[in-house]
Amino acid sequence: MNPDYLRGTWMAIALGCKAPLLCVGPLQTASVGFRWMERKNILLNVLLGAYHAAYTPLEVREMLPEKYPKVTHIGLVNGDDTLLKVASAIEEGRWIARDIGGSDPERMAAPAVVQYLQSVLSGAEGITMHVEKVDGKKYPLMAAVNRAASVVSRHDGRVVHLNYVPPDSTTIDTTLYLIGKGITYDTGGADVKAGGVMAGMHRDKCGAAAIAGFFMTLSRLQPPALSVSASLAFVRNSIGPDSYVSDEIIVSRAGKRVRIGNTDAEGRMVMADLLCEAKEKISTVRKEDYEFNKGRTEYEDILQCNNLPSSATARGHQVPAAFLVMASGLDKHGMDSLKPLPYTHVDVAGSAAEIHVLPTAAPLMMFASRYILPRVGFL
């Protein structure tokens, strides 16, 4: 996404322009031999930057309809139909990701997310959706996080399962399983986010939001020979009489005894059982990252978290990934196993951005460039 055209389109809109025309001159210093510097990719990034600037948040569209749309048309000099189709498909997905990820914790509480997805994905070709409440027997770690919120009907968690199958399902050569963190609001739970650091935690659902948007992009571009399944955990980490607390030992879906170290490490909790379920259907983490999560006593197999932020923990950025591998049972499916399962952990921060800017849906664009665009002949 080109930041210059993002800022330029913002400036044009602020000046009252309703139909900006994008013109990209020759880049004299363009590096030779890099695919991302090919003309069509430059134009795609330009369009995506302009589209991002033209987005109107969901609450603004609903509460102040006179402010929408910001533009009536966006023009591009020397564009073509294929480029416009790809850019439009990616933007439709990002629109969904921004709507879910950027909206406040009431407008996009779990039941409201489901209603929204049922509306926008209705009729989406190749996409099926199944929704269930959080079942403590199927998803015990997730259910622990959901306990406090479950007594408030509008906050009660939901698991959304999405599937994409190409038009010719007999040619499938690649299957992706995606697990999404959709924390609709994170109070920290019993280990409350004190000291003014709770603001902005409605963005903790941006991982699941980006995956949901990715399915719209899949539907619009219909990549062949690729199937994608996703399970999204939309759960609120609330405070209440039934909150889960540190020191609890909870048995995961994979049969691992997990001792809770801090209730503010809820993201890995809601995803671990879903990752285990995905494993059943079918950044490099180093040895010391696994060592951190090993149980300290005979009571537990795995320690969920310590009481320090990741920035104050040695290699804290990798600890959640190692926990998910261990709690889901994926550690039994390494390269040396009979059934190796490749696994990648994508952090939510790149999609959530800062509270004062729009969610980026960055994982959506990454997944699209890796798995969709080569299959539809764009890359």
Protein architecture, described:
GO terms for molecular function: manganese ion binding; metalloaminopeptidase activity. Keywords: Aminopeptidase, Hydrolase, Protease. This protein has 379 residues and is α/β, with parallel strands linked by helices. 37% of the residues lie in helices and 13% in strands. It is built from 12 helices and 9 strands. The protein has helices spanning 3-14, 39-54, 58-63, 81-102, 110-120, 140-150, 206-221, 266-280, 287-293, 319-328, 349-352, 362-372, and strands spanning 21-22, 75-76, 127-133, 158-164, 174-186, 226-237, 249-251, 257-259, 302-303. Strands 3-4-6-5 form a 4-stranded mixed sheet, with helices on both faces. It has a 3-stranded mixed sheet with strand order 7-8-9, covered by helices on one side. α6 (140-150) crosses α8, α7 (206-221) runs parallel beside α12 and α8 (266-280) crosses α10 (319-328). Residues 283-290 and 311-316 have low confidence and may be disordered.
